[in-house]
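Bench notes, afternoon.
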Amino acid sequence: MQHLTVHLAFVAILVGTQAFFTALSVLNVRHADRLVDRKTAWLDDVLGVDDPTELSDYHRLTTAFSELQSWVGLGVLLVVLYAGGLEWAVGLLASTGLSTVSQGILFFAGLVVAAQLFSLLFSIVSTFGIEEIFDFNQQTPSLFVRDTLLTLVISLGFTAVLGGAVLAAVNALPTLWPVAAWLLFVAFSLVMQILYPRVIAPLFNEFEPVDSGELREVVEDVFERAGFSTSDIYTMDASRRSSQLNAYFIGFGRTKRVVLFDTLVDSMAIPELQGVLAHELAHWKEAHIWKQFASSAVRMGIVFGLLGVLVDFGPLYTAFGIPETATYAGLLLAVLIVGPILQFTAPLTNKLSLKHEREADSFAADVMGPQPMVDALARLATENLANPFPHPWYATFHHSHPPIPERIRLLQERSDADEPATDLDGATPADD
């Protein structure tokens, strides 16, 4: 009876969570379609979207494809688990005579390879099908293969190091391993702030420092207005893979840098580019990286606490026919259960990120004036075919940035505080 209860709870958590988020996605698409139809004039006047049908088509297709991949992935996972795949893998590894830690490293490495193989077909269809249809894809098949293999090698390396360290902690500290694993996560996150921009990202893209020419003058102007000394601005050859626009801030101390996609530099007017740069500098000035890091550390501390409880829960092992000595398998099952909890706590994380993005927009408006940032946001939405009207419930769980219409409205209010704000944010009551 206890086994049945464990199985019912396990399936209910996984399937119920997926069903909930699929329902949100459907709600989001229907909501966006209605508002795109109602606000075609605003889309044209403010964002410059002269073909809202293309925007809606891209949103529908990418959403449907993402949901298809999620449901197929969940189905494959449940079939493997309930056909005895986990029990078979544990038995096979146990027959090698290796230590539990070594078995666990091989186990997680196998999962990485299996996940990569499963996602390969979907990645091919997404890259050379959907993204190609909407003129985003710039990637050649050879570059796609290179990226896939390089990602696999890097993933396997991190899996061996981190997975081995966690499993060693489980063996050495049966009751305190969650604390050790959490400290490892904190240390790894700090190291990645240095390692990613300096070592990993350059394996995929070329980064050129902005140190001369018109772009340098533009950058220096923004830094001077913002009260910073000019340094650590790079352009990235994102156009090798996609025509979409973006920029990001990463790192801390001497490793911090602002990265501008070359597609962004090539597509935006100088004032728009300066608005984006001022926005990214705000994340630096307001210590958003550290605040997000602290929030993530707290969240993961809770996660590891839950994992510690589940890894010690004997009925979970018995229900799937694996010995309690196979802690690596128990850790997998625990992660599958805790994963949905992370999804449902996303609004807490997103709330902090939304606050930071609004602060960054406000800083950009202070430095360059509101209009450059308004124009930049319009350009980003148009070029990337971003859905400007997410359903409020969907945005609560999925969006770390405020909807672009809301950001534009707030910036326009700063520009003319006496002018009544126009309802642009799409946050109308849902009809569903």
